[in-house]
Write a structure and sequence with these properties.
This protein is an alpha+beta fold and 309 residues long. The chain is built from 11 helices and 10 strands. Strands 8-5-4-9-10 form a 5-stranded mixed beta sheet. Strands 1-2-3 form a 3-stranded antiparallel beta sheet, sandwiched between helices.
Length: 309
């Protein structure tokens, strides 16, 4: 705890450094950057004291992270296996990078990475680049944003596949705070997307939207706790395995949980889903049902739909 005199002295020095709120904000952000760099140094020192047997430190290498607080530059130890004869190209490792779970050559990290990827799903890469720069996060070219999104997507695919293999090959339940609700709704569908490459066939993106029902917002309704899962698996089995592995992070799916699956007449929905959710109520959703009624009954469909309603 600072004494009153120390607090007054600190504020006095602080007022000499700042001119307005913007400069105060810049000063505080610089302090945060410095604090993160200190934390990284402390972590690296701790890992050095507890390094794995058979590894020696072979010097330091600098790495730069681009964060929402600006660029953070730091040195961390590089480790190689202790051998009698030192090889010319000995493969080493950075314990700090491994502890922070940050892939090689990735510069954009943390919440800034998530923000950049999220923006790119809503805007063009050029627009996302401009918004990030205007918001004070530094310049990131549209081409680099494109590469970042591709890398992030590959990482997510690997993660989903690892969770799926853990569940179906090793019997490991996905980690997560699971919620138990009386009823879960799954809206499943497939979207066909044309390939931009000449001669390549269109591909189907399978998706499933999970929610807990509907909330009334004035005259409108909104899906409650909506989560969307998309996958490009060709088979229904591969899709439902990956989907179930992700669902089990958030929800219990015991036999007493009612699961309602809405979709079109596709076999990967109607026949496959019961293999993974035996208690599921599988039905044709209203959109596809009404569409098919119009196809079959033409002009008489309106009266039939009124009867169904």
């Amino acid at each position: 705890m600072r004494s009153d005199e120390e607090s007054i002295a600190f504020i006095s020095r602080l007022l000499q450094c700042v001119e307005d709120f913007n400069s105060l904000e810049d000063f505080c952000i610089a302090l945060v950057r410095h604090f993160i760099e200190l934390c990284l140094k402390e972590l690296d020192d701790y890992l050095f004291k507890n390094k794995p047997k058979g590894y020696n430190c072979d010097g330091f290498k600098v790495r730069v992270f681009q964060t929402k607080f600006g660029d953070i530059s730091f040195s961390r130890r590089y480790y190689v296996k202790a051998t009698k004869k030192k090889k010319r190209k000995q493969k080493g490792r950075f314990l700090l990078d491994e502890a922070l779970k940050i892939p090689k050559r990735r510069r954009l990290v943390g919440s800034l990475l998530k923000l950049a990827v999220s923006l790119c799903t809503r805007l063009s890469y050029r627009e996302a680049s401009e918004v990030l720069e205007e918001a004070g996060f530094g310049y990131i070219s549209h081409q680099r944003l494109h590469d970042i999104v591709k890398e992030y997507g590959k990482d997510q695919i690997k993660h989903v596949d690892n969770v799926r293999k853990g569940l179906f090959l090793k019997g490991e339940e996905p980690a997560g705070k699971k919620k138990k609700v009386p009823i879960l709704f799954i809206e499943a569908d497939g979207i066909h997307v044309k390939s931009q490459e000449v001669g390549k066939e269109s591909m189907e993106i399978k998706l499933a939207a999970v929610h807990e029902g509907w909330d009334d917002i004035g005259k409108e309704k909104r899906l409650k706790n909506l989560r969307v899962f998309m996958d490009m698996s060709k088979s229904g089995d591969a899709f439902w395995e990956a989907f179930m592995a992700q669902l089990l992070k958030y929800y219990e799916t015991d036999e007493d949980v009612v699961i309602v699956v809405n979709g079109d007449g596709a076999a990967w929905i109607q026949s496959k889903v019961r293999e993974y959710f035996p208690q599921a109520i599988v039905q044709i959703d209203r959109f596809h049902l009404i569409r098919d009624v119009y196809k079959v009954f033409g002009g008489n469909a309106k009266k039939l739909i009124e009867i169904l309603n």
